Amino acid sequence: MGKIVRKEYPVLDMSCAVCAATVEQTVARLEGVREAAVNFASNRLLVAFDESVLTPGRIRDAVRAAGYDLIVEEEGAEEKQRLAERDRLKRLGRDTLGAWIFALPVMVISMMFMHMPYGEWIMLALTLPVLALFGRAFFVNAWKQTSHRTANMDTLVALSTSIAFLFSLFNTLWPEFWYARGLEPHVYYEASCMIVAFVLTGKLLEERAKGSTSSAIRNLMGLQPVTARIVREGREEEVPIASLRAGDSVSVRPGEKIPVDGLVLSGGSFVDESMITGEPLPVEKKAGDSVVAGTINGRGTFVIETTGAGSDTLLARIIETVRQAQGSKAPVQRVADRIAAVFVPTVIGIAVLTFVLWMAIGGSAYFSHALLSAVSVLVIACPCALGLATPTALMVGIGRGAENGILIKDAAALEGMCRVDTVVMDKTGTLTEGRPTVTEWIWTDPEEASCGDIVYSAEMKSEHPLAEAVTAYLAARGAKPCEVTAFESLTGQGVEFRSGGRPYWIGSRNLLESRGAVLPSDLAAHVDALSDEGRSLVFFGSGNRLLCAIAVSDPLKETTPQALDELRRLHIGLAMLTGDNRRTAAALAARLGIGTFRAEAMPDDKDRFVRELQAGGRHVAMVGDGINDSQALARADVSIAMGRGTDVAMDVAMVTLMNSDLSLLSKAYRLSRDTVRLIRQNLFWAFIYNLIGIPVAAGVFYPLWGVTMSPMLAGAAMAFSSVSVVTNSLRLKWKKL
């Protein structure tokens, strides 16, 4: 037995979940395949096979024979899939627009000008391009399903439009057949057109939502540098990332992305790790400290020893985790697709049975009645309302959400949000503003307040991340630069310098203590209280004298407390994740009344926390704004991104709060609940007409009360079901969230 390899390939030309099942079954039957799984949401095939028995080329040939296509070339596969999906979306958009342009005149003629001269011929001419050009994919896909003995929404559309069209065509070409029997021929071209137009609209919405998954992966991959400067014999040489190995020395200059995971050998700097930790404050790195690929170096320069490159980096693992988490999600199954395999043969069977029974009862004299009854069954069973049920509710719901700053990408979010019982929130940028700000400035001697210009000038020279918050605070209050000399950075403590011939220092509590300065007793208690609240303290002094204490923190958003209270009223549990230290996290959680939190959480920890909640039976919504949240966002039942966050977070997320206001969470929940309720109501109305209308159309009540239904009345009933579905969906436009 040869080596078993696991590969993932993009699949093209799938239109529904049944297509995915067909590809999966086709590949699974190949000799040498141990495992095959197709995810329709990401359009990818995961296959484990014996490479001594089977080649990727043979797998592709089998998929092509089934009517689909597979990209097996590893080089540029992502880009080829992206281009193919883009072309499919453009084509679907053109087909949808074209179908509506031709369908609307047909509907107007059929409803208002039924007896206009040559009306049937005009409708025939307008219907032909809708079916043969814009709706061609339905018939192609229906044939694929038929050849594999399955049925889906495409089968329903192809069957119903064909029956309605062919019956109408017969009545247009040979109307005398019915006149001779004392009947008036009717045509149903509008049914064929409107079915195609509405279902194409639904498919267009679905394809747009699916497109976000691959773009999220592309954005993550874009964070990986392409080249690095390797240090060999004291010289720097730029090489591709793929050529680096563990143990290589790599130079990183100011402002660059760090190309590999590694340990700092020499030099030092502050590194922005917010993409991993989510925390806004850059972290100081010196010899022996670890760094992560994709993070951004500050103003310093250092050399690192490579511990992981390419697919072995933390960023690469995040990318793979996001891909797998997205792939593990089952696609949202339309109710129509779930029942199509039963619905289609059942309707056909009822129509055939209707014809046979009436012929058996009345013989040739009942031929017209038998045929009309059978056609009425097929016409009234036309899935126009079924095709409308979900798209109309989605269109109104998505539009209503957009009006309120809530971007909902797909039906999975609508279905899942109303079942959420636990909301997990990232701290920085979600609960808080996401940037350090001076919250308190305490002078020990008011007469020294004139030293603000000195602090401003010194902090402008500092590389410490808190210095930006201090300078921004002072600049807003009109501080001006002044002369600062003998400036010296004290590693891990702060800075010291001279101004106007007087020595000064700015830094941590350790620096304050090393200078022999003493906190006044009243100030000491206040400083301790600020520390307990999780605020960072900066001290400014001269010699052994403290001049002022500065408190810096990431402030809460104004709307956060009220938003959390509203979620509690909806009986939704709350949890918080943060890369910050435990003391800061505990202080904020206590302040907000959040009982469950995780501090010092890396991306893997956040992902693990969500999985733990799900394992306990919870339906979890994850709210985040950074790349560090992308794993947890992809893992959650519903993923929600803040609008001011990273593009990756918003691409992975099913829902985006456009103005980063947490108060929109409760509105999103209610919108989801109302929209899902509408979808269920619409599906009920779509089917109730069939449940009542099919027996009437089949003539079940004709022997008892002489009640029957002509194809014209069947078409009217079908149209009325569509109107009721649309009208029901429009109610959401005026519903208060």
Structure description:
This protein is an alpha+beta fold. Helix content is 52%, strand content 19%. It is built from 27 helices and 25 strands. Strands 5, 6, 7, 8, 9, 10, 11 and 12 form an eight-stranded antiparallel sheet that branches. Strands 13-25-24-23-14-21-22 form a seven-stranded mixed sheet, sandwiched between helices. A six-stranded antiparallel sheet has the order 15-20-19-18-17-16. Helix 23 links the parallel strand 23 (620-624) and strand 24. Helix 8 runs antiparallel to helix 10. The two termini are 61 Å apart.
Topology, number of strands: 25
Q: What is the number of helical segments per DSSP (H or I, 4+ residues)? A: 27
> Structural class, from helix and strand content?
alpha+beta
Question: For the residues shown, what is the average pLDDT?
Answer: 78
* End-to-end C-alpha gap: 61 Å
